[in-house]
Write a structure and sequence with these properties.
alpha/beta; 9-stranded mixed sheet; 5 helices; binds iron/sulfur cluster
Length: 210
């Protein structure tokens, strides 16, 4: 199997329960809920995306002919030292490309493998951390994992319904949009009204990391 990677770089995880952790971010190209083209946004299943996942031209991106080649690229970006190796695999939608061979190759190099997915495709086995971020109007099949990250507000999603899903952590993150102040207020309100939810912010944007 070959892999199309938009970008891949060393950074600090900015979101969720692992915020602040040194990690290699591996962003796969492509998503099943939006083409990534602005002219398609209004009719996309997911219309609030803040990510460029089109092509393979980003920092550290490219086409990789095998799982081993891509895992070696991740390891090179991490550098020396085997302590707390973490790779965060995202997209686009990572489950379009991520397979057990890549998970195995990363494990052999000592990495914990975390994914951030929209949950519309089942997660591959062997993952160390599953973060699902549901999108309104989609059929989420991956209803278990480590953290559920709800970008808020979204019409058509009921947080009370989501609370029945099988996750260890329930996080609400203000939508990064033009009405940012309203989104922050709505996220705070949800966390205050329903204590199962914890407010999370995009720390990488606050401190100016990619
Ligand atoms: S599912 Fe995620 S990657 Fe895909 S369009 Fe929505 S926010 Fe962007």
């Amino acid at each position: 199997m070959s892999y199309a990677v938009k970008e891949c770089f060393l950074t600090l995880q900015g979101e969720g329960m692992q915020a602040g952790s040194r990690s290699v971010f591996l962003r796969f190209a492509g998503c099943n809920l939006w083409s990534g083209r602005e002219q398609d946004r209004a009719t996309a299943q997911c219309d609030f995306c803040d990510t460029d996942f089109v092509g393979t031209d980003g920092e550290g991106g490219g086409k990789f002919a095998s799982a081993d080649a891509l895992a070696a690229h991740v390891e090179e970006l991490w550098g020396e030292g085997r302590e707390n190796r973490l790779v965060v695999i995202t997209g686009g939608e990572p489950m379009l490309q991520l397979d057990p061979a890549l998970v195995d190759s990363l494990h052999k190099r000592g990495f914990k493998v975390a994914v951030e997915t929209n949950g519309t495709l089942p997660a591959v086995t062997g993952l160390d951390w599953i973060c699902v971020s549901p999108k309104a109007g989609t059929d989420v099949v991956q209803r278990s994992g480590d953290e559920l990250k709800l970008v808020w507000p979204q019409k058509g999603i009921d947080p009370v319904e989501l609370e029945r899903w099988n996750f260890d952590h329930f996080l609400v993150q203000p939508m990064d949009c033009e009405r940012r102040d309203e989104a922050v207020a709505a996220a705070i309100k949800l966390a205050m009204d329903r204590p199962k939810w914890r407010l999370t912010l995009q720390a990488h944007k606050v401190v100016g990391l990619a």
